Amino acid sequence: MKQVTIVMYHYVRELRYTKYPKIKGLLASQFREQLLYMQKYYEFVTVEDCIRAVESDDTSFPNNAILLTFDDGYIDHYTTVFPLLDKFGIQGCFFPPAKTILHHEVLDVNKIHFTLAAASSFDALLQDVFDCLNRFRAEYGLESNDYYFAKLAVPGRLDPKEVIFVKRLLQLGLPEAPRKAIVDYLFKKYVAEDEAVFSRELYMDTDQIQCMIRNGMFVGGHGYDHCWLNSLSSDKQEQEIDQTLEFLKGVGAPTQDWVMCYPYGAYDQPLMDTLKKKQCSLAMTTHMEIASLNPEQSLTLARLDTNYLPKVADSNMAPWTQKALNHG
Ligand SMILES: [Zn+2]
Question: What's the CA-to-centroid distance between 107 and ligand 1, angstroms?
Fold first, then answer.
């Protein structure tokens, strides 16, 4: 059975020299070290190699194949990641959501990250969130603050329960309309009055994406709106995919034998049927595993978060690396 370790990255930046050092991301220096670690144990492959491996009976595909993927279209991918990949001779696969590049909007998920990173006092932010709930309660028929807190505030692996509460409430814990209204209010108050200005600082632009493609990088789809695609009707899903393909065509990325990356890793069978119909070859989830390359699983490829592999070049072999190498 052919397999590939697909690694998932988001922010890659030298955080302490940025305006928002509290953003959770991989440091540029760690990225370089991780590439050196990978060079020791893995064989870098391209998206095209993976597509061929799915479609052919050729069994020579290496067990230690590795493919690097970068979600959400951050400017980091152009300024930090691309020069290093170019230097190492590695192909990266990039997934920018169309609306950020075409219309200079900021993804809700990014608004939440930056609001949390910008708040100097978390208590004040928490109070603002409760004030927002109070303000919107009558209009949207919201439950009491205690109700939401009891339901959503559970301590996490990395965050205290108050932080988890704010994240979950703003990500999924409220109906769409009040959720968006609160996210927008907090983003404007804590981060940036002008969303388009912030968007141009946060994401790549079309010329930068085209430059990466000219230099051998692969660009795939990450939806238009970066929404939970499994929550849409199949008509709406198809509309999202068409807008995604239009974007890819516009930047000169493949629209046949193309690659999709599900926002939030969310997909369902009707979506996969639509992708097949639209000649999508591979699709990435956020399921943490080494991906199997075969026609049955080509639209549900697992990935490993960058945090699952060492960020120091001469680290001992990580369990996920052992697992890949021992595969027979
Ligand atoms: Zn994403």
Answer: 9
Residue tagged 């050729």 (tokens):
58
Q: Are 279 and 245 in contact (CB under 8 A)?
A: no
pLDDT of residue 260 exceeding 80: yes
CATH number at residue 294: 3.20.20.370
Between the CA of 324 and the centroid of ligand 1 the distance, in Å, is 26
Question: C-alpha angle with apex 275: 272 to 276, nearest 5 degrees?
Answer: 90
User: What does the alpha-carbon distance between residue 56 and residue 242 come to, in Å, rounded to a whole number?
Assistant: 28
Q: Based on the fold, state whether residues 18 and 34 are members of the same structural domain.
A: yes
Q: How many whole angstroms separate alpha carbon 74 and alpha carbon 106? A: 11
Query: What does the pLDDT look like over 158-212, one tens digit per residue?
Result: 788 998 999 999 988 899 999 999 999 999 999 999 999 999 999 999 999 999 9
Q: What is the CA(287)–ligand 1 centre distance, in A?
A: 14
pLDDT digits (tens, 9 = 90+) for 130-151: 999 999 999 999 999 999 999 9
Q: How many domains does the chain have?
A: 2
pLDDT digit string, tens, across residues 66-120: 999 999 999 999 999 999 999 999 999 999 999 999 999 999 999 999 999 999 8
CA angle 308, 311, 316 (to 5 degrees): 80
Other CB atoms within 10 A of residue 264 CB: 17
pLDDT of amino acid 157: 81
Asked if 70 and 155 sit in the same domain, the reply is no
Q: How far is the centre of ligand 1, averaged over its atoms, from the C-alpha of 119 (Å)?
A: 23
**In angstroms, what CA-CA distances link 37 with 41, 124, 217, 269?**
7, 42, 21, 37
Q: Which domain holds residue 186?
A: 108-197
Which residues are paired to 94 by β-bridges? Answer: 70, 219
Report how far apart, in Å, the C-alpha atoms of 297 and of each of 51, 112, 321 are. 12, 32, 21
